[in-house]
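Practice record 12: protein with uracil.
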Amino acid sequence: MLPIPRLIERKRDGLALEAAEWRALIEAYVAGEVPDYQMSALAMAVVWRGLEPSELAALTESMLESGASLDFGRWKTPRVDKHSIGGVGDKTSLLLAPMVACCGVAVPMISGRGLGHTGGTLDKLEAIPGFNVRLSLDQAVEQVKQLGLVMLGQTPEICPADRKLYALRDVTGTVESIPLISASIMSKKLAEGLTGLVLDIKTGSGAFITDPAQSLVLARTMIGIGEAHGCRSVALLTAMDRPLGQACGNALEVIESLDGLKGEGPADLMEVTYALAVEMLLVAGVEQERPAARARLEETVKSGAALQLFSKMIAAQGGDPHVVDDYARLPRAPVIVDYKASREGVIVEIPPRKIGHAIIALGGGRSRTDDVIDPSVGLLIPAKPGDRVRRGDVLAVIHARSAADAAKAREALEEAIVLGKLATPRPLISERVTAAGVEAWS
Ligand code: URA
């Protein structure tokens, strides 16, 4: 029998557990032999005391080995994913997956749903009529080999230890721990059978971790785990003190992604998308220099190849591929109204948390895990912090199920979009982090 109370006491007192103890503990937890009350006490001890590098490695490995992985056998094609720490209006995955796959890099992307105030890739994809994100691991591998990309949800076979532990952490105040977050995310990413990983670490008021110094620690911790598993890893720190792009809400974000794949996306969205996609080509080793990688990616958009591949992926996963040319096939909200500036001024801020909560109130996100979301609703926000606006300028367009919902969204926007004299938004991309260290982005 594992001496669980002794392990908890040692962690509580700041001592490290042996790798073999972590392995035995995770195995026993998955087997139902460690009660949740003991595991949550241990998780809380980790929140306060952290983990030594050897403990972090053992915990990540044990969670990875608790389940199955995407098995590509001897397939030689480089496989790279991008993982974002969660944002509002962040639809970069939908754009960069087909762009990168068109450059000979496979993208096996296992994504999540909206969490808290942030949106999720799976919810966006499910706005496309018929799109199926519930593939088996074998189906996912097959599709990656045939098309070069797949976008699916986490299956019960992947990292069951994390599934159980994350659900426990969610209700015991133990999510906010850099080693626990890193082990949780990286065990799932490593289960994708990747050769490279690009992390998009959101920073600013709308990020889960709001302190930029802590964002850097998180980036370095996750990169350390990736590199230790032979998965070349790099992170960009990107701004989440305002929504990314203009569209916030699932069907609206699909439309904006399709516009982006046609070369018509908003500048900020395209800049972050290209920066992350360039890093994907570099970690894959198919390009060595940033300008060449960028030019190759731009060509996938200009030629229409990325859009065509996205449409093929939609068809392969049971969705309606004609949405790419006919947006009327996507869900559309019945009430669409402008929100206009009530006076002249400079937009000081558009806080992503308030925007995310307004979308949840419209029905486009969840406040409970079993809530059913309405993909048609959301907000289009062309305004950005720093813009000077005049009275009557359209700051946002509300897409709602009813006039009453639209009125509530208007109130939320009145509170969220602050007009004043001066704005100091964060740089869109501030740092690049690799195993070698941190560079300022230029
Ligand atoms: N997302 C995860 O998958 N795990 C965490 O611990 C936090 C966010």
